Amino acid sequence: MSETAANREIALECRELHKYLGEGEMKVHVLRGVNLKLYRGEVSAIVGPSGCGKSTLLYLLGLLDRQDSGSIHVMDEVVPLDKDGEHTRIRGENIGFVFQFHFLLPEFSATENVMLPMRKLGRLSPKDMEARSVALLEEVGLGDKTHRLPSQLSGGEQQRVAIARSLANMPGVLLADEPTGNLDVKNSLMVFESLTRLAKEKGQAVLIVTHNPELAQKCDRILRMQDGQFIES
Amino acid sequence: MSHNFRIAIRFLLAKKRSMLMSLAGIVFGVGFFISTQAQLSGYQELFIETILGTDGAIRIEDRIQATSVFVEAASSKGNSTNFFLSDENNRRFVEGIEHPESVVEAIMELSNIEATSSVLKGSVQLQSALREDSGQVFGITVDDHLAVSALEDQIDSGSIIDFRQAPMGVILGVKLAARLDVSVGDSLIIRAVDQQRRLKISALYETGVSDIDKKRVFMHINTVRSLLKKPHGVSFIQVSVFDRARTMIDSQLIENVTNHFTTPWQEREKSLLELFKILRISSAITVSTIIIVSGLGMFSMLVMIVMEKTREIAILRSMGYTRGDISSIFLWQGAIVLVLGTAIGCCLGVLMTFGISKLPMPSAGLFTAEFFEVNWSGWHYIQAVVAATVIVMIASLIPARRAARLVPGDVIRGTAA
Question: In terms of residue numbers, what domain contains A218?
């Protein structure tokens, strides 16, 4: 892997990440010096038992939380540790998220939900934003339901809207936390297929946290985690 | 339209009932604030207009006796040293104005002085065919007095022209006429000291101030001179001004120049003006509680939205929305309710004020008026809007800050406080 990897573009890298949760006697060393590189166009899966630190690592890599030590680099840019404004900017420009629950805004239609990250970034005109939003929804198979509210969509459809939303700003990195954890087998496969296909087509680095071994097997790389560290498979 | 504003509107519309409750509170608070202030300041304005129309802006009265004392002290060398001692706190007065023409000539040099009227005042007994009552006679020169008062407008029956043409004519207040059971054209006897005159009622006036309408009697100054046996001087000079706001300064200037005790209307009616001020502040505080209560409603509504929308807030943050964006989404919600509430509240204030101004006054109190008095002032609207803005912004700021402080990782992981 190393030889091939050397020629590939790194989208995200972390070095010696440490993270503690809790206070005093309840303090737990969740991540114990994690090192990781995510490459463009590659889909990686993190698997491991509950509480091993998978989601915590994902939130740190997504700059939704702060590490106690170690460094994170996104698209060759070092992420400063204590600058919330910088975290928000880097996140908005380079990172897309898909969570176990879709977290769509219920007051907005599917198109409007997908447009939300674009509106914040402000790179496109409102007309182009809408066109891109509709195109992304078509790519996840929801071209005929663009104006529906989340409450008018099924669980699988809502999650596909969330995938379209995560791709809205063409981020270099896509982080997914149990994206199919709340879906049946059929919908799980459909969502996973949409996620990996689009990411590969658009050259994004995808990191999926999952408990589903079948889905993990379909990824380019499987990272096994235990007690806050990656272990050899 | 800003995207934060768009999100704010959607969040707000999702809570229609709570929003409408907060909106109604602000609408009624602002409306009541405006209408009560319009009423109270309407009465204050009526009161000021009435006192200016009856007693004038400035009254020049008794002459101030010189308080400076010349002292001569012998020095050790046998020469004498001269100096003056002044005792301002123990001022003494000589009753009336001995040379009113000189005083008038002096004060007419001041730019703000409009007109003057010299008045000779005295206590009298009035006797009609059936009854007797006491009164206070004001000896005036008709045209001079009309220039410094609203007497002509206050005539209820009879006419000023009749009075002008009748040297033995008299003008009575409606209340005094009712007590004496007389009307225009009737005769009555007026007694003072050891003199008495039979006079004919030329007109009746009504100022609306009970104390004036039941006591004050207007007669020609020469008739009063002979009745009171005062061939020279006057009791006071009534002065009208162009700009009533400058009266205090002019009054002080007149006192310094003429050496006569001078009172501006603000000082003369100080206690009642203070009462009006206290009433206005008191009613503003009382009515503001409605806005405060609606502000609390607003606060709880926004706190509820923050609690219900923590995941949406976290997801917005994950998309690149800054703490400032989240804060502004909640401040926009407050601003939308505020703008709608104050706009509708101001319209309600206009309607209520207009409605009140058309209500007939049920009974006469300190002074009378046909309808409830209101004062249309932009300041009432500004004050109401400022009060609502302060309260709503405080109510919005706390939830907005709370929303902005949420850590997205904690919320999504489910460990947010």
Answer: 41-65+82-231
pLDDT band at B258 (very low <50, low <70, confident <90, very high): confident
Residue A101 to residues A155, A169, B412: CA-CA distances in angstroms? 9, 20, 9
Residue with tokens 């663009």: A146
CATH number at residue A115: 3.40.50.300
Q: Is residue A6 part of a domain?
A: no
Give the Cα separation of B18 and A140 in Å (integer). Answer: 37
* Residue-wise pLDDT tens digits, A194-226: 888 877 888 889 999 988 888 889 899 999 999
Calculate how close chain B gets to A215, using CA atoms only, in Å. Answer: 22
The interface predicted TM-score (ipTM) is: 0.84
| Contact at CB, A106 and B317, closer than 8 angstroms | no
In A, minimum Cα distance to B410 occurs at A65
Q: How far apart are CA B290 and CA B284, in angstroms?
A: 10
* DSSP character at residue B90: G
Q: Report how far Cα B371 is from the mean position of its chain's Cα atoms.
A: 18
Q: Which amino acid is at B159?
A: S
Query: What pLDDT score was predicted for residue B53?
Result: 84
Could you identify the residue written with the tokens 């995207």?
Answer: B3
Whether A115 is in a domain gets the answer yes
Confidence of residue A134 (pLDDT cuts 50, 70, 90): very high
The pLDDT mean for chain B works out to: 85
State the nearest Cα–Cα gap between A89 and chain B, in angstroms. 6
Strand partners, B124: B135
Name the residue ranges covered by the structural domains of chain B.
Answer: 3-52+272-412, 121-222
Name the nearest CA neighbour of B330 among B365, B301, B359: B301
Any domain includes A36: no
Of the candidates B333, B323, B316, B406, which has an alpha carbon nearest to the alpha carbon of residue A119?
B316
Residue B417: both structure tokens together: 């406080």
> Does A108 map to a domain?
yes
- Cβ partners under 8 Å of residue B200, min gap 6: B166, B168, B169, B170, B185, B186, B187
Each residue's pLDDT tens digit, B348-388: 999 999 998 888 876 555 566 678 888 898 988 998 899 88
Is the model more confident about B14 or about B183?
B183
Nearest CA of chain A to the CA of B2: how many Å? 9
Predicted TM-score (pTM) of the model is 0.70
CB contact under 8 A, A120 and B321: yes
Residue (of A143, A134, A135, A141) closest to A111 by Cα position: A134
What's the number of domains chain A is made of?
1
Mean pLDDT of chain A: 87
